[in-house]
Amino acid sequence: MQFGSFLPIVAYDVGLVALAFLSARFGPTPKSLRITRHRDPVFSVRRPNRVLLTIDNDGDVPIEARLRDEPPPHWPASEREFDVRLRPGGRAERDYHVTPPERGTDAFRATFVRVRCPLGLVERQERLDTQEEVRVYPDVLALKEFGLLRQTGRLREMGIRRSRQRGEGTEFESLRHYTEGDDVRNVDWKATARRGEPIVRRHEAERNQAVIVVLDLGRAMLAETDGVVKLDRALDALLMLGQAAALSGDQIGLLAYDDAVRLWVPPAKGRSQVGLLIRSAHDLQASPSASDPVSAFAYLGARWKRRALVVVFSDADDADAAGPLAAALGPLSRRYRVLLCRVADPKLAAARRAPLDNVDGMYLRAAAALLD
């Protein structure tokens, strides 16, 4: 084959390269795109959180591009890449959802843009600086859903109803003269003796009560239920309890401990207090240390002298751990009204009910008994 027969091919290739160079040189540039990421300032763990991208074309030519946003790599995302076509001065919006698997602080990386140049011979890629830090909290979205259900009156469909308070309450309000039909048990005999006529005590329902959540951060709370550590389950319950207390006008506080007290948030009321609890719970992590409930409850008693409902989230997984907890709860219950909550493991509960008519079921029952 003669060398001259290659000349058309070489000329064709050189022409393509020249066209590609000119297309890239004078075509649209990714730097003409301005990308803004919009999101909630607070992300909820294990929940789909919406991210909205706004893409503006600040250039003088139309742009056809493909962009890829980079959330933290271990976060599942509904979508990462998007195609956009924008006229000069145009704007487009694309959204997707990310699901953070755990609490903490992470960051969105840059956004990568690949612009198609004229004739389709070249694509120019650029890295746009859209980095930003993001903080992941307990399930804050559940609070919004609860508030929306309350506003729309749909809590009744979930079995949550407003109950009429019966009785006269327990808080002393005033003294008054006895009238027919009053309960004899409400007669104030000392006041009756002083005045020479029957006097009864008037009571009112207790309000502005204090609810103190006590979180065990010890090694027992490192265990997982359905892939979620038990501490995170307790933190989700803390936020819902705080929201309920705020709506009822009650105070809510928090004490967290392992071998020492790690956090103390005195009870207060209002939505600002719920926000404080959310921020305080962000950095709480369970530790491999053995918990010291005796010291923690003594700390609580020294700092809160009034009555309160104390909700303790713990998980004594063996007799050695249950002993100190039980010993500490005795004195605590004489001073406060105490509610002890344990985070259940559905898989362990299923193992306890495993059938005994096969070998696998017998092994499951035996393993569950060892863990009890």
Task: Describe this protein's structure.
This protein has helices at 7-26, 141-152, 189-195, 230-248, 271-281, 293-303, 319-335, 346-352, 359-371; strands at 33-39, 43-44, 49-57, 63-69, 81-86, 91-98, 104-108, 111-116, 123-128, 132-137, 171-177, 199-204, 210-216, 224-225, 228-229, 251-257, 261-268, 309-314, 337-342. It is of the alpha+beta class and 372 residues long. The chain has 3 domains: 3-137, Sandwich (Immunoglobulin-like); 171-204, no CATH class; 210-367, Rossmann fold (3-Layer(aba) Sandwich), CATH 3.40.50. The strands form 6 sheets. The chain has a 5-stranded mixed β-sheet, with helices on both faces. Strands 5-4-8-9 form a 4-stranded antiparallel β-sheet, with no helix packed on it. A 3-stranded antiparallel β-sheet has the order 1-3-6, with no helix packed on it. β16 and β17 form a beta hairpin. It is elongated and about 125 Å long. The termini are far apart. The model is unreliable at 151-161 and 163-167 (pLDDT under 50).
Summary keywords:
single chain, 372 residues, alpha+beta, Immunoglobulin-like, Rossmann fold, 3 domains, 5-stranded mixed β-sheet, 4-stranded antiparallel β-sheet, 9 helices, 31% helix, 30% strand, elongated
Alpha plus pi helix count: 9
> What's the average pLDDT?
82
Instruction: Trace the largest sheet across and list its strands.
Output: 17-16-13-18-19
In CATH, the architecture of the largest domain is: 3-Layer(aba) Sandwich
Strand content: 25-35%
Structural class: alpha+beta
Low-confidence stretches: 151-161, 163-167
